TrEMBL record:
<feature type="domain" description="Tetrahydrofolate dehydrogenase/cyclohydrolase NAD(P)-binding">
    <location>
        <begin position="143"/>
        <end position="289"/>
    </location>
</feature>
<keyword id="KW-0028">Amino-acid biosynthesis</keyword>
<feature type="domain" description="Tetrahydrofolate dehydrogenase/cyclohydrolase catalytic">
    <location>
        <begin position="9"/>
        <end position="124"/>
    </location>
</feature>
<feature type="binding site">
    <location>
        <position position="194"/>
    </location>
    <ligand>
        <name>NADP(+)</name>
    </ligand>
</feature>
<comment type="function">
    <text>Catalyzes the oxidation of 5,10-methylenetetrahydrofolate to 5,10-methenyltetrahydrofolate and then the hydrolysis of 5,10-methenyltetrahydrofolate to 10-formyltetrahydrofolate.</text>
</comment>
<keyword id="KW-0368">Histidine biosynthesis</keyword>
<dbReference type="InterPro" id="IPR020631">
    <property type="entry name" value="THF_DH/CycHdrlase_NAD-bd_dom"/>
</dbReference>
<dbReference type="GO" id="GO:0000105">
    <property type="term" value="P:L-histidine biosynthetic process"/>
</dbReference>
<dbReference type="InterPro" id="IPR020630">
    <property type="entry name" value="THF_DH/CycHdrlase_cat_dom"/>
</dbReference>
<dbReference type="InterPro" id="IPR046346">
    <property type="entry name" value="Aminoacid_DH-like_N_sf"/>
</dbReference>
<dbReference type="GO" id="GO:0004488">
    <property type="term" value="F:methylenetetrahydrofolate dehydrogenase (NADP+) activity"/>
</dbReference>
<dbReference type="InterPro" id="IPR036291">
    <property type="entry name" value="NAD(P)-bd_dom_sf"/>
</dbReference>
<dbReference type="GO" id="GO:0035999">
    <property type="term" value="P:tetrahydrofolate interconversion"/>
</dbReference>
<dbReference type="InterPro" id="IPR020867">
    <property type="entry name" value="THF_DH/CycHdrlase_CS"/>
</dbReference>
<dbReference type="GO" id="GO:0009086">
    <property type="term" value="P:methionine biosynthetic process"/>
</dbReference>
<dbReference type="Pfam" id="PF02882">
    <property type="entry name" value="THF_DHG_CYH_C"/>
</dbReference>
<keyword id="KW-0658">Purine biosynthesis</keyword>
């Protein structure tokens, strides 16, 4: 049986290119207008993985020349206190982007908090205004992880028009917006979830297979149509024995090799693009806010 020479999609390299573009534009804006974009990242509680991501985000924000404001609140922070912080950040002219790290403690209604973020500063694209705009196919601030996946797909494949895309997962953070973006890119989209009957059969018809379930090993080699492009969003830390851990995706990577045309590795695939898209969204949001203020229009 002939096997395919599977190409790895280097997310780190794509992310570095996008970050370099953002960095150059930030330097130019500072030089020519003396204006610097600012990103506020809010973390409630002490989830170890979230702390690592927030550290990465703040470090990279500073490294492209933007201002970074980290707000770490105790796990027992009340909903009212968090809403008060969001209101302060909405009113702060130095803050152009606000990201509230998920998940929030169960005592806090995350929908309420996400909807309280000024839509012009909602660089995670998770509030109802930006979600609605994406759903209508209008310009919007687009959630960073699905945006990163879309940029990888377009960089690798060019036009996605007419391709059959299967998205496994329908979370508000990843799967749902991913399906919307692929639909806007003129794909034929199937969204699979926990109630889907025979997800494997759907997956086997996909030209583009995006997997975002957090279930390591869910997608086997025989779920993949030969030559398909596979985007593995899943990130799970598993023990390797001897007290060490490693990160794995939702796809059995070794089985995908020789079947998929292209695939994103974990780590080094979608993850780095998520952060690059956050920086790009923050620059975009800042430009809109400056333009709005200058012309007196709402951003
Ligand atoms: N690389 C990155 O930048 C990012 C990576 N992630 C990672 O992506 C993964 C998904 O994250 P997230 O979307 O937030 O997770 P959620 O747990 O919120 O959502 C998982 C989704 O997968 C579906 N699902 C679960 N099991 C199956 C199954 N056996 N068959 C079909 N569908 C299934 C669920 O269906 P249902 O809705 O029916 O329950 C749900 O829609 C995680 O590993 C997370 O760590 C997340 C964000 C960013
Ligand atoms: N409001 C909100 N927005 C998010 O975008 C959001 C969130 N909450 N909560 C948690 C998830 C997770 N997430 C990741 C970002 C970067 C990497 C990343 O950079 N990963 C590296 C590896 C990092 C490592 O080594 O630990 C990689 O895949 O190569 C991973 C995961 C964003 N999330």
């Amino acid at each position: 049986m002939s096997t395919i020479d599977t190409r790895l999609i280097d997310g780190k390299q794509h992310a570095a290119a996008l970050t370099a573009r953002v960095s150059a534009e930030v330097a130019q804006l500072d030089r020519e207008q003396g204006q610097v974009p600012g990103l506020a990242v809010v973390l409630v509680g002490t989830d170890a993985a979230s702390e690592v991501y927030v550290r990465n985000k703040t470090r990279q924000t500073s490294s492209v020349g933007m201002r970074s404001f980290a707000h770490t609140l105790p796990a027992d922070t009340s909903e009212a206190e968090l809403l008060a912080l969001v209101a302060r950040l909405n009113a702060d002219p130095d803050v152009h982007g606000i990201l509230v790290q998920l998940p929030l403690p169960p005592s806090i209604d995350s929908t309420l908090v996400l909807d309280a973020i000024d839509p012009a500063k909602d660089v995670d694209g998770l509030g109802q205004v930006n979600v609605g705009r994406v759903t209508l196919g209008h310009p919007a601030l687009v959630p960073c992880t699905p945006l990163g996946c879309l940029l990888l797909l377009e960089a690798e494949l060019g036009s996605l028009s007419g391709l059959h895309a299967v998205v496994v997962g329908r979370s508000n953070l990843v799967g749902r917006p991913m399906s919307q973006l692929l639909l806007n890119a003129d794909c034929t989209v199937t969204t699979a979830h926990i109630h889907t009957v025979d997800t494997a059969a759907h997956a086997r018809r996909a030209d583009i297979l995006v997997v975002a379930t957090g279930r390591p090993g869910l997608v086997r080699g025989d779920w993949i149509k030969p030559g398909a492009t596979v985007i593995d969003v899943g990130i799970t830390r598993i023990p390797t024995g001897s007290g060490k851990t490693k990160l794995v995706g939702d796809v059995v990577f070794e089985e995908a090799l020789g079947v998929a045309g292209r695939i994103t590795p974990v780590p080094g695939g979608v993850g780095p693009m998520t952060i690059a898209c956050l920086l790009s969204n923050t620059l975009h949001a800042a430009r809109r806010q400056w333009a709005g203020r200058n012309t007196g229009r709402a951003a």
